[in-house]
Amino acid sequence: MKKNYVFLVFSLLFCFGKLNAQVTIGADVEPQPFSVLELMGQYETDVFGGLRLPQLSSGQRDALGATLTTSTLAEGLMIFNTTTKCIEFWNGTAWKSLCDSGTGGGGTGPGGGTGGDSGPWGHIECGAYIAPGVYKKFMCRNLGADPNAHPFYPSADLNGDYYQWGAPMPAATWNTIITPIPWTVPAAYYGDKDNLTATDAKVKSIYDPCPPGYRVPTYAEWQGVYNTALNPRTVIGDMTSTAGPDRWSGIMFGDNLFLPAAGCRSFSIGAVLDRGANGSYWSSRMLDATYAFTADFDSGNAVMGSSYRRAYGQSLRCIAID
To answer: Can you give the pLDDT at residue 280?
Structure first.
């Protein structure tokens, strides 16, 4: 009987355009003068409940958003984003999150803490699990990427610049095909200067080019991102060596971290290598004076490597500081 009553109320309220009555659900009390509809938290003696919004992932939300831009009537539409764990609403041009204030979650789960992307694509949180139950926020784009590029769709604007390990400034940009890169290995470092091989101190050195609040990820953090049990991988685009240098592609790790296959820069002449087929991202751990550890991937694998000279130009993606 109760279910039939609720159904009848909603039918009367929303199916008949000329109905002006105010309604309270959950208690036999008059609604306030300013309310069209009121839902009471206690609907039986000592039995409580709340309003459950539609549950959509970020991908489902974006698919819905594509149909909303043609009508101003969609303004105020609300959902609960199951990816970011936040309530979001459509403001007429973009999705806005109620977690934007930076007070939600404390940074321990999707959508927690401050940061994220609040550009033309609406609020997007970027991050991945680095260990079971440990979610970390990442910047949404590589250093040097266009801040207006969509962080989950491969494009030339998303590849970013190329850094030699330890250098605070880029050695080359994404769109210069041949630019000589000095063979000299930078004397600086990204993490702890003694951060060799088995150590992984979460230290941001003065040479780290990541913006305030972020640093170069450690070896262990990248290892967690590449764990398929924590972050299932989805290849986006044609990641093959025959696809050509201008076929933009990459891998989505989990639901909220897309890494473009930006390739790398030769340490001798600066030529672009394997762009569109591979991604190589520096970690803060060095192997020795000549080599440093990288997080590498192609269409079939994502592994931690140590075979790159520190003089190579490679991508940087920053992680939020604890």
So the answer is: 92
